Amino acid sequence: MTATTERQPLLRADDLTMTFGGITAVKDFSFHIEPGEIVGLIGPNGAGKTTCFNMLTGFYAPSNGRVRFKGQDITNRKPHAIARLGLVRSFQKTNVMKRLTVFENVLTGHYMASRQSLLATFFPGEAVRRAEREARESAAAIVETMGLAQRMNAPAHLLSCGELRLLEVAVALAAKPSLLMLDEPAAGLNSHEAGTFGAVLKTLIGRSIDALLIVEHNMDLVMSVSDRIVVLNFGRKLAEGRPAEIIENRQVAEAYLGKAAA
Amino acid sequence: MTLERNILLAFLAGAALLPFAVTDQYILHLAIMALFYAVLASSLNLVVGYVGEFSLGHTAFLGTGAYTAALLSTQAGMPMWVTIPLAGLVSAVFGFAIGAITLRLQGPYFVIVTLSFAEVLRIVANNWIAVTNGPMGLAGVGQTLFGDVAVTDKAGFFLIVLGIAAVALYLSYRFVYSNAGRAAVAVRENRYVAQSIGVDPFGTAMQAFVLGAFLAGLAGGFYAHYISFVGPEVFRFAFMATMIIMVLLGGKGTLIGPLAGAVIVTVLEEYLREVQELRLTLFGLIVMAIVLFLPNGLMGFIALRREQQAAKPTLNAAKERTV
């Protein structure tokens, strides 16, 4: 094993590779997330960030490499099984249950906390009623945290783009994840909204979640919330470090902007 | 949620009074068929409205239940209180087996494969003469309820089917408003979100599917005793068409919808009897009109109107609604 065996990372990916036919989307990508960390995953369009997300959460089966979460090997497990271990993600293309209200969306997110036997479904006892009450209270609290209290009973399809992103995070939070992974959560937010959003994200660590992985193109947001940043380019890891180091990194600037004229 | 529950309770309570108020055998027969169809439509609604896939093979469970009850009654002389629950259980087992195959499919694939299962069962019923008596069917299904108490009049059958309807609505209500029901809705609305919050799409769909099969089996068991004859027709597409019309007309994905649909269609069918040949044509037109203009059925239409009403007036009204 590696040098850091004394303390296990929350999530550890080794040599992840994903090929689609002849195209290699991600190649030998390794990284880890420690408890308490906010990690930003950035890179130009098509760098393989979303593919990484899909491999980590079981939506894609990696062609090669392993994923470990809380010390367990979760490579090739089903998405719902991975979610039940506490690794919950959001999606790049806004994904909520459009015909349900904000509250119902978040309440549905509590699925894992209130799972019950079939018998209890049909003949609910006090325990089920209590779980139901707790789920409703928790759902209301999460809606409040994400600043959607005024839209509590609005059907999701009536929300603005920014509100939808918040709702998406709220649904993911409702699943009480240990590691939350957000795929471009600030897309469509204006800079003021993005600032507020970043502040909310920071308060989550230690309170609602153990760690956060965020893919985002809004550099101000990523740089301000992340403890550490991993840069992907053409499916390979280009750089890794603290935000200040990444901003200084010549290779990263070239990947985004191209080489400066000599 | 509470409104829906109260309407259902009021409906059942009102229905319970019917046999005491009405003695006309013909009307009682209509009421029995309406409730029988209400159970069937509710069970189909669990698949169409909560799994979100369109099953054309729901008659498989109706027929399995009917044959189970008929065989237990004619071969073993068992009374209704045994045969009808067993009919439900056997159908549930069939539901599990068929679901294990079909629920891996989606969209048109699911439709076709469920349809073929019903068709296969019909052919089996038609040809396995040693057990099913083939096209002649099983006649003389007993009418004893328990011990030597026999159900002799329509009022008795009405109370039995009302009991089954109450069980069906209770189980559906519990399922739909439980965590499992919410998970089913999540899968229907957005498969990806459902998985990311830990819902197993296959397992959740299976629960709704098996529950639907169980309820359809109960209805089938009742049908066998009431008509006292079961033939391969129970697997025929005509039942399926009727169920679909009821669910679509009433509104899929609601509990009251299939109930309302069953009552309306049963009554309409009787009215339209006079125009014999045109009947099915008219029903075809009705279904087309519903799909085009009321895609969420009557209940969907009412819910929409209520939403519009609530969205219009003052802030106070909106506040009241959130409380």
TrEMBL record, chain A:
It holds the Pfam family BCA_ABC_TP_C. One of its GO terms (cellular component) is plasma membrane. InterPro entries: AAA+_ATPase, ABC_AA/LPS_Transport, ABC_transporter-like_ATP-bd, BCA_ABC_TP_C, P-loop_NTPase. GO terms for molecular function: ATP binding; ATP hydrolysis activity; L-isoleucine transmembrane transporter activity; L-phenylalanine transmembrane transporter activity; L-valine transmembrane transporter activity. Keywords: ATP-binding, Nucleotide-binding, Transport. SUPFAM superfamilies: P-loop containing nucleoside triphosphate hydrolases. The keyword Magnesium does not apply. GO terms for biological process: D-alanine transmembrane transport; L-alanine transport; L-isoleucine import across plasma membrane; L-valine import across plasma membrane. Coiled coil: none annotated. It comes from the Bacteria. SMART domains: AAA. Residues 11-259 form the ABC transporter domain. This is Branched-chain amino acid transport system ATP-binding protein. It comes from Azospirillum brasilense.
TrEMBL record, chain B:
The chain crosses the membrane at residues 33-52, 59-78, 84-103, 155-173, 208-226, 238-268, 280-304. The keyword Membrane applies. Keywords: Cell membrane, Membrane, Transmembrane, Transmembrane helix. It is a multi-pass membrane protein. InterPro entries: ABC_transp_permease (IPR001851), LivM-like (IPR043428). Signal peptide: none annotated. Its main location: membrane. One of its GO terms (molecular function) is branched-chain amino acid transmembrane transporter activity. It is found in: Cell membrane. Pfam families: BPD_transp_2. GO terms for cellular component: plasma membrane. This is Amino acid/amide ABC transporter membrane protein 2 (HAAT family). It comes from Azospirillum brasilense.
